[in-house]
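anyone seen this seq b4? input:
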Amino acid sequence: MISTLERKAKGDKVIWALVVILTLMSLLAVYSSTGTLAYRSSRSTESYLFKQIIFILVGLVIMYGLHKLNYMWYSRIALVAYLISIPLLIYTLFFGANINDASRWIKLPIINLTFQTSDLAKISLFMYLARQLSRKQDVIHDFRKGFLPLIIPVLVICLLIAPANLSTAALTGATSLLVMFIGRVSIKHIGLVVGLAIIPVFFLVLISTAYYNKEEKRSEELPGWMSTGRVETWVKRVQGFLYNDKEDMAYQVQQAKIAIAKGGWKGLGPGNSESRNFLPHPYSDFIYAIIIEEYGLIGGVFVLFIYVLFLFRCIRLFRKCPFAFGAFLALALSVTLVIQAMTNMAVNVNLFPVTGVTLPLVSMGGSSFMFTCAAIGIILSVAHNVEKVEAEQSLKPVKA
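predicted toks r here
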């Protein structure tokens, strides 16, 4: 059976192996970290394990189906997918399901499931960005003809995501700029965007500092106009990161630190986490802390190595792909997944403010898990077609 799967699964075998390793780690970590959630929901941890197995199987089917398609098909649907994602994001802002004080989800009728429209928007944006980059290489340094057609779609998506999910918008924008840089976009044009983006970040830090009482070590109440939407949440997260107070979001970081400290080098062993009973969302946002607690620093470094190796294989694919669209598509999708993983791990070890992003392929499943599998399926589609081109070239007779 395994040999049959190996024959049918095309593309980079190392990427396939990394996916299998991460999903197996996901099963162990999710099963271990859902005890408190199961207790609150009056369910068994086995039910969440079974649910995760279903998500993984469906995700692998999606990955397999997408990797069998020629990646040029994604170029043809890129514009349509991008245009569909815009009204979906707008609808989510005004009528989306509010979960954890954020309106990021749309509830699907009949099946009664929710999905984050930003996940669809990210994949659509990167398909469209790869398409535009491959077509604009002749005028890539021209501001009006080359840069504006690239940056405007990015700004539209990021501005629509930002009100409900600032961290995802920031990561999407950063990934887009990095791909543009690799795609030969002028550094001064990219620098202009980075300079403009720093301004709101500067004001956010300024507000966080101004409304924090250092003597009493607590957040002060914001003016009414600042308390609307997610501004108050952003301010408190920055305050918690800068001052390490004991309120609100900083509690998650403190519990994550305790989990990491308990783990040491070798960890407490599979299923022996103690911090899972105190750490909010140990099965999603802070699952990396649980992995370190149970498998130690060795396990944490191993997970980091897996994502670095994944990025290395995708960069190798970028260099081997004979067509610009496939190269940029594989690079954009792989970079966004690895940046998301690095951000999640950085939050868990308190190197970055709390963001709410999950660890790709490891955190408990949902729409984010499915779209991650879809992104990897598209990357494998590029790898599959690169293999076919290399095989065809190897069969050509060598000229004397």
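The CA atoms of residues 91 and 106 lie 8 Å apart. The chain has two domains: 11-68+249-383, 81-210. kinda curious what u guys think
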